[in-house]
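Hi C.,

You asked whether I'd gotten around to modeling the 53-residue construct. I have! Everything is below, sequence then structure, no commentary in between.
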Amino acid sequence: MKKYKCKVCGYIYDPEIGEPRSKVEPGTAFEDLPPKWRCPSCGAPKRMFIVLK
């Protein structure tokens, strides 16, 4: 699974870990996050994330 980085604060969403603060289970792909999900560090919307290579 691909990791995604917030362009605003640098937070990295790793689908293998999920996001406990947002109650996102491990194994949840970025594409499967709710449309209104926001960066847990700075509150940026999903559109502010880029794929890490």
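If it helps when you're writing up: The mean pLDDT is 96.

Thanks,
B.
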